């Protein structure tokens, strides 16, 4: 016996076997049972939802030899003939192939004759919208007043194309698309009665692919049975449909929500080997996002059986409503775009990248090159304590990075600086003082542990663009160092870099570490370039780190010094440490601005100091010039504070002779302005070369507005 396709074998024989479309069936059953039949019915709905099936059942109901009812016997000749498709008074016309007016005329010529075998002549015209206008006109007259023995059953997938005159003469019955749940349950019934094995998961894939059409679902099941040699397995169905596992959507969502770009991209690459339908994948993704959004509002929102309710509930809690909305919006808007993209996989990747790029907190962890992507999940989503915890783990890596430094500039260090985050409050976000001697190196070493992290904390808190990082301070300065590749570099730049490595290593328990030669050279070189002829003593890079105990003491001292923002008078410790490296002998007009900045004085005394330049040094007397407009800042008390600070920093008691006049260009405030400007320019350059910014610029014409880029530490050096 030849195989009969499921769609035909399981075609319902009466209304009670029909799956779905209850609203239409009820109308028909009532009409039949109450004998209030219309002479022309129009069934609308997409393909495979049961239009012709219902029309045929209706034909049976009308012609069953046991009388007109909603329950045809299914045993009489009329019922059997109709079921077999050979009933003479059921005239089925495929309008798609008989569009000409001649065809319609021929059809209508016979209409007046009484039915041969049955009670009614039933004209079932499928795809009626395909008829030509002439055909419609020919049909109209008859449709309005057909002979009493004639019933018209019209079916169309596209009622919009029917002339209004036709529509108004028919009783329209709209058939709905089948919901996946209904398709799955029907497929289960069918497969069970066929005694075939199946995976429910596979049926869901079929139901999804069938897109509301039961006939398609049954045809696909036929295919799957053939494909899977008698059983319907998920793997086979997915391969057959080019769809992907439902778990895939869940995993995509997870990676998307965690912002794990690298893992996400390799996951997509992996998926592409299965040659999935990326458009379908994207629409599935947006559907899943809708589920997440619903779960966030209605926690007990019923999910389709195929979705892992627990996993989805967990995802819904981990992602913000805004992100879900954003992802959904981007997904939906990109669906049309995806179909136009030259390569669907490329299009799909771009959609995912866009989702991440526009996500408020997703931006920050994007770095300069794909190969630098951090392997840990974005720290932004983690609580701070976790960051601290992770520091230890990453410190080990720092050792390796040091070795890397010897061949290249300090590039990888900005990663380390990120990982070195701790709870240091961000009040001390200023740049590190460039230490010009071994002694002060201890300080800046400790500094390095604290400050880059605090600046990171600030970056994290304000959720700025990643490269703003580059604006702020040491952490960023490392980026600067990278860009110029050990060329002319601010000495404040490299020093913290190396000290950071050392400091990190120290934390890990290694008590001594040497800076590689190449770095030393780079540092020395840059110090020279930068210091503009200032004769600073070379840094002893072979210096070993102080013991952990020593570090703590120095760190404590430093924190002390960092705190008194409201005290105009710096402590001895601070001044002593930060400005060490200068002596009365080495102080010159040129390096005076550095010295003044490194005193880190604040309040009126600091403001006054920053407007001064050094005229000359005579013995232990410093002759300073100050703008007369600023001289009001300098009262006796400030003079006293300055004298004390200078004395401590220079290691001997000095006399400050401050006169009014033109201080010229070598003042701390101009120096700082210069540094800030350079940092800003550097940051703008960094921003413009950032791949994400370039992507946004290229794809959407976004531009960095230079005036919106600010140096985050303009007040401190
Ligand atoms: Zn019958």
UniProtKB/TrEMBL annotation:
Single Gene Ontology MF annotation: ATP binding
Cellular component GO terms, alphabetical: DNA polymerase III complex
Positions with biased composition (Polar residues): 381-393, 435-445
Single biological process term from Gene Ontology: DNA-templated DNA replication
Record keyword ATP-binding present: yes
Source domain of life: Bacteria
Stored CDD domains: AAA, HLD_clamp_pol_III_gamma_tau
Described purpose of this protein according to its UniProt entry: DNA polymerase III is a complex, multichain enzyme responsible for most of the replicative synthesis in bacteria. This DNA polymerase also exhibits 3' to 5' exonuclease activity.
Gene: dnaX
Location of region: Disordered: 370-393, 407-445
Domain AAA+ ATPase: residue ranges: 37-177
Family: Belongs to the DnaX/STICHEL family.
Catalytic reactions on record: DNA(n) + a 2'-deoxyribonucleoside 5'-triphosphate = DNA(n+1) + diphosphate
Signal peptide: none
Organism of derivation: Umboniibacter marinipuniceus
Protein name: DNA polymerase III subunit gamma/tau
């Amino acid at each position: 016996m030849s195989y009969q396709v499921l769609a035909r074998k399981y075609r319902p024989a009466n209304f009670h076997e029909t799956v779905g479309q209850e609203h239409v069936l009820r109308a028909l059953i009532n009409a039949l049972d109450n004998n209030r039949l219309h002479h022309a019915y129009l069934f609308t709905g997409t393909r495979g939802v049961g239009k012709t099936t219902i029309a045929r059942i209706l034909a049976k109901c009308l012609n069953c030899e046991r009388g007109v009812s909603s329950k045809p016997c299914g045993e009489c000749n009329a019922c059997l003939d109709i079921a077999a498709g050979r009933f003479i008074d059921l005239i089925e016309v495929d309008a798609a192939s008989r569009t000409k007016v001649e065809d319609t005329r021929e059809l209508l010529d016979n209409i007046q004759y009484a039915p041969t075998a049955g009670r009614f002549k039933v004209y079932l015209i499928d795809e009626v919208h395909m008829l030509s206008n002439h055909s419609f006109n020919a049909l109209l007259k008859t449709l309005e007043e057909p002979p009493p023995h004639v019933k018209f059953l019209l079916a169309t997938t596209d009622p919009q194309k029917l002339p209004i005159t036709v529509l108004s003469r028919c009783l329209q019955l709209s058939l709905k698309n089948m919901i996946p749940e209904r398709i799955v349950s029907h497929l289960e019934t069918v497969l069970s009665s066929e005694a075939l094995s199946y995976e429910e998961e596979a049926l869901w894939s079929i139901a999804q692919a069938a897109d509301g059409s039961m006939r398609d679902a049954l045809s696909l099941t036929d295919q799957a049975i053939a494909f899977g040699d008698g059983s319907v397995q998920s793997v086979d169905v997915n391969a057959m449909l080019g769809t992907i596992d439902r778990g895939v959507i869940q995993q995509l969502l997870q990676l998307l929500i965690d912002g794990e770009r690298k893992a996400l991209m390799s996951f997509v690459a992996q998926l592409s080997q299965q040659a999935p339908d990326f458009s379908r994948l994207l629409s599935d993704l947006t559907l899943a996002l809708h589920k997440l959004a619903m779960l966030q509002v209605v926690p007990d929102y019923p999910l389709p059986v195929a979705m892992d309710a627990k996993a989805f509930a967990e995802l819904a809690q981990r992602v913000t409503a805004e992100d879900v909305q954003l992802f959904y919006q981007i997904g939906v808007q990109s669906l049309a775009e995806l179909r136009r993209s030259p390569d669907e996989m490329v299009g799909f990747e771009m959609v995912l990248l866009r989702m991440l790029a526009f996500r408020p907190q997703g931006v920050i962890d994007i770095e300069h090159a794909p190969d630098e992507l951090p392997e840990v999940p974005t720290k932004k989503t983690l609580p701070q304590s976790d960051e601290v915890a992770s520091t230890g783990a990453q410190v080990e890596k720092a050792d390796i990075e040091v070795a890397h430094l010897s061949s290249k500039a300090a590039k990888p260090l900005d990663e380390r600086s990120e990982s070195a985050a701790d709870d240091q409050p961000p009040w001390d976000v200023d740049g590190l003082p460039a230490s010009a001697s071994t002694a002060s190196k201890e300080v800046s070493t400790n500094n390095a542990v604290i400050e880059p992290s605090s600046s990171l904390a600030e970056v994290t808190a304000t959720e700025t663009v990643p490269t703003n990082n580059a604006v702020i301070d040491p952490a960023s300065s490392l980026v600067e160092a990278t860009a110029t590749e050990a060329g002319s570099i601010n000495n404040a730049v490299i020093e913290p870099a190396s000290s950071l490595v050392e400091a990190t290593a120290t934390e890990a328990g290694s008590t001594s570490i040497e800076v590689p030669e190449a770095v030393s050279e780079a540092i020395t070189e840059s110090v020279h370039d930068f210091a503009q002829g200032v004769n600073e003593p070379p840094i002893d890079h072979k210096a070993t780190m102080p013991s952990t105990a020593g570090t703590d003491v120095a760190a404590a001292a430093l924190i002390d010094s960092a705190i008194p923002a409201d005290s105009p008078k710096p402590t001895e410790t601070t001044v002593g440490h930060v400005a060490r490296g200068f002596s009365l002998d080495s102080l010159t007009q040129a390096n005076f601005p550095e010295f003044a900045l490194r005193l880190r004085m604040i309040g009126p005394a600091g403001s006054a100091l920053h407007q001064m330049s050094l005229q000359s040094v005579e013995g232990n007397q410093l002759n300073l010039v100050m703008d007369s407009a600023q001289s009001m800042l300098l009262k006796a008390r400030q003079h006293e504070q300055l004298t004390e600070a200078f004395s401590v920093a220079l290691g001997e008691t000095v006399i400050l002779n401050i006169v009014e006049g033109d201080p010229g260009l070598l003042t701390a405030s101009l120096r700082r302005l210069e540094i800030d400007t350079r940092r800003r320019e550097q940051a703008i350059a960094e921003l413009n070369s950032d791949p994400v910014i370039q992507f946004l610029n290229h794809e959407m014409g976004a531009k960095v507005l230079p005036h919106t880029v600010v140096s985050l530490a303009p007040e401190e050096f």
